[in-house]
Amino acid sequence: MLIRSAKEDVKYIMFTREQIAARVRELGKELTEKFRGETPLMVCVLRGAAFFFTDLCREMDCMMDMDFIAASSYFHGTKSSGTIRLVKDVSIDMENRHVVLVEDIIDSGLTLEYLVKLFETRNPKSVTTVALLDKEVNKPERFNVDYYGFKIPDKFVIGYGLDYADYYRNLPYIAVIKEECYQ
Ligand code: PRP
């Protein structure tokens, strides 16, 4: 049987697990302050944000509900198809709630824009957006995120939930993949 290591396809590590943990801790503190006395509804955008979401929620010291939504737009490529598909909706009613939408990465911004607009039709008290990574793309009209962990250059990254063709999500750090692995 061929044993294939995910780590072998890594070109270099952009953020180590320690750097990620330290930044997630800071974001958790900021959000704890913001929602002091409130019970936010935390919404994880599956599947990429799964690790970030569970770590972030554990760094927040407030009462909260957790829910999950799934959207997809990359369909095994490295560029957004431009078409967002809602794969799974939330199950908790968000009317009159402070909703926190948690993403792994903002690239074209299309997924975030789609989900925020969808949520706004459901009459929440507020929608706050958080992403671990905010890709620096030269598009002034792009939908922007309220809180981010790290700004990153325009490179395709994997690990800590982020995939290429559904692989590499389990890498414990954020890395750049070797070009030959996706060309
Ligand atoms: C990725 C990522 C974000 C979105 C960001 O999801 O997890 O949700 O793309 O890209 P954008 O800003 O260009 O819209 P993907 O469609 O790959 O689904 P996944 O989370 O299941 O990997």
Would you summarize the structure shown here?
21% of the residues lie in helices and 30% in strands. The protein is an alpha/beta fold. Strand 5 (98-106), helix 3 (110-120) and strand 6 (126-135) form a beta-alpha-beta unit.
What's the number of helices?
3
Work out the radius of gyration: 16 Å
Structural class: alpha/beta
Query: Helix fraction?
Result: 10-25%
- Unreliable spans are none
Number of strands: 9
Characteristics:
183 residues; alpha/beta; binds 1-O-pyrophosphono-5-O-phosphono-alpha-D-ribofuranose; 3-stranded antiparallel sheet; globular; 3 helices; 6-stranded mixed sheet; 30% strand
Structure, described:
The protein is an alpha/beta fold. It has helices at 17-34, 50-58, 110-120, and strands spanning 10-15, 41-46, 65-72, 85-88, 98-106, 126-135, 147-152, 157-158, 174-177. The strands form two sheets. It has a six-stranded mixed beta sheet with strand order 4-3-2-5-6-7, with helices on both faces. It has a three-stranded antiparallel beta sheet with strand order 1-9-8, with helices on one face. Helix 2 (50-58) links the parallel strand 2 and strand 3 (65-72). The protein is globular and about 50 Å long. The two termini are 25 Å apart. The protein binds 1-O-pyrophosphono-5-O-phosphono-alpha-D-ribofuranose.
